[in-house]
What we know:
The chain is mainly alpha-helical. Helix content is 63%, strand content 0%.
Amino acid sequence: MKSLFRPAILSTLLLLPLLAHGQQARPVEVPGHIRSSSAYAEILLRSTEVKAELESLIADYTEASPRIVDLRFELAALGKAAERLFTVRPSDTGKLTLALGKLSVRKAALETDLARLSRSHTPENAEVKRARKKVEIFDAAIREILP
Length: 147
């Protein structure tokens, strides 16, 4: 189901691609029922931590640095998690719990680990398969809350 709040995916939480290339982004208003949720707060907290770390490292490392690549990937994964929240109707705000936020943040971290492993191993590698399975487990838990 498409949400009327789709443009909000470019909220302050999701300035990743523009910040990645040194451009200024304009914040878009996040719907109140999302902004006041524990899930959004948890994603925003981790996103802010990642952005702060990225800013502290960007002066000393190149864009191709594995750490920079990982941080940008995690920021993008957190953006996707927030975008998923924006599809929640105001009547379903009760689903946006701290547990959902923690699941979303952990899934973003696991996706980052999977991306890192995928850069250096084949898809058939046992570590890659284990990482992919972990991501699938967290995704299934999130889908149980937000179908």
